[in-house]
Amino acid sequence: MMEGHMFGNTMWAGHWLWMLVIAIVAVIPAWRICQRTGYSGWLGFLILIPVINLALLYFLAFAEWPADKTGDCNG
């Protein structure tokens, strides 16, 4: 049914580019939020993993931030 169609059996190259753009748009703000709260910016990559991203948001919302303890606000 999909034979000969450009989207048939392989991923369209533009799909990967689009996914990269979405990842960048999501990770950069998450990275900055993690840094400002006093956690490692690398936690921002968790925003790309379904369900884990919700856990990250809840963690950031309800955890005590190291930046609050040190008085450092990075911005």
UniProtKB/TrEMBL annotation:
Transmembrane segments: 12-31, 43-61
Organism for this UniProt entry: Marinobacter persicus
Record has Transmembrane helix as a keyword: yes
The keyword Transmembrane belongs to this UniProt entry's keyword annotation: yes
Name of the protein in question: DUF805 domain-containing protein
Alphabetized UniProt keyword annotations: Membrane, Transmembrane, Transmembrane helix
Lineage: Bacteria, Pseudomonadati, Pseudomonadota, Gammaproteobacteria, Pseudomonadales
